[in-house]
Amino acid sequence: MKIQNYINGEFVNPISKDWLDNYNPVKGEIYGQIPNSTKEDIEKAVQAAEQAFPIWSNTTLEERSKILSKIADLILENLEELAKGESIDNGKPISLAKQVDIPRAAANFQFFANAITQFSSESHESVGFDAINFTLRQPLGVVGCISPWNLPLYLFTWKIAPAIAAGNCVVAKPSEVTPMTAHLLGDICTKAGLPKGVLNIVHGLGKTTGKAIVSHPKIKAISFTGGTKTGAEIAKIAAPMFKKISLELGGKNPNIIFADCDYENMLETTVRSSFANQGQICLCGSRILVEEKIYDKFKTDFIKKVSELKVGNPSDSTTDIGALVSKQHLEKVKSYIDNAEEYGGKILFGGKKVNVKNHEKGYYLQPTIIEVTDNNCKLNQQEIFGPIVTIMSFITDEEALKLANDVKYGLSATLWTNNLNRTMQFSKQLQTGIVWVNTWMLRDLRTPFGGAKESGVGREGGFEALRFFTEAKNICIKHD
Ligand SMILES: NC(=O)C1=CN([C@@H]2O[C@H](COP(=O)(O)OP(=O)(O)OC[C@H]3O[C@@H](n4cnc5c(N)ncnc54)[C@H](O)[C@@H]3O)[C@@H](O)[C@H]2O)C=CC1
Ligand SMILES: O=C(O)/C=C/C=C(\O)C(=O)O
Asked: Looking at the keywords, is Transmembrane helix present (predicted)?
């Protein structure tokens, strides 16, 4: 199958006529091709977006909202096909894509369809100066959205929906590893009545197609989710061009467990926060820190629960863990297991590749638990982004907090306790953008979303996203 670019409302071949192979991680085989787009394709997309902008930015909020709602409805109507598309590219269980990825993609559009009708700006009477100030929030123009492979449609739409709701026109690039659902979205947008040129989807590699988006002088803002190293490369190009940037980057999130927690709930959730989506979510709790009093019990119970997870064919509804996204990624993740001892770790469970019947070339790995004693080891400091968690114990609150904060990342933290004072102390002192207490991945789309330290710059979600995708202009009117 050949996926094409979606530019100016039409599916088109790349100008260079150059294509890249697309792999299915479930089988470890090539199943299609995508455009290897160049800066000429980006130029066409920018021109289409620029042409659409004067009309789209003046389209009423009610009309924009109606179209976004329609896109949300069509995503849900096409849930089966989209979930299969997500799984064939990413390797995730189809059941997970049906329950999480695709409904959330629809929710992103529905949320911003509503939010844009509630987004208002401030006004201030300048008392004593006979003047009134008000703020105009104007769309930026053409903006760029670049997304990763782990939650393909979920994160692609998380950027596109607020961008177009706010009146911008978009040039978007999904990950070259997972292009399918972005491709299907193009057709959905046409059917929903989105005017041509408002959304342009260009496929290709990060270092060429992605870079061409970031460096295009007419693209005013970049919203990016992906690796920290890539985020730094993007910032290096975008900052001297004075573009707005929102970077959602890596994480090495602590999952801090105290003896006074609701144990069963914690155990169940910790299995999920460790291995959901094969551990390939930037919010996964990859460092489990457990109070010494319950460490041995936790270790035994956690290993038992994890050993019950089924690694298998993503089409099978009983599968918990599907394939990793690519051969290259599998090898990267596996290298941490192969070197675990050298890094000071002890493998307590897992660590081996899994042979799935009829899919022997697929990229399957056991969920893996590694015990560590030193937070400074590579296993606890580097983002692995796969089905690997480390566990270690702590004695005091101070020690737990120090361990939690002692990494270069600062995306999210999970805290398990029923002590209110401790909850408040940790909430204030954890150096992360998100703190979940007695839960994980509970997402209210109104909340600010983003990371501290090397986990990113800026916040998306709710009105934060609409603020990012608009320019605030102060109007000061003097009167008699
Ligand atoms: N924070 C997160 O959510 C994610 C973190 N990662 C981390 O990053 C590591 C590398 O994974 P990759 O797939 O290589 O992620 P990546 O950061 O290279 O890719 C994310 C997106 O950025 C694009 N891109 C890559 N280089 C670019 C550039 N120079 N300019 C503009 N766009 C560019 C890619 O084509 C893709 O669409 C993973 O092993 C994982 O640790 C990966 C995906 C998501
Ligand atoms: O917005 C969310 O709910 C989740 C976001 C997850 C990422 O940004 C990620 O895993 O890259």
From this structure: no
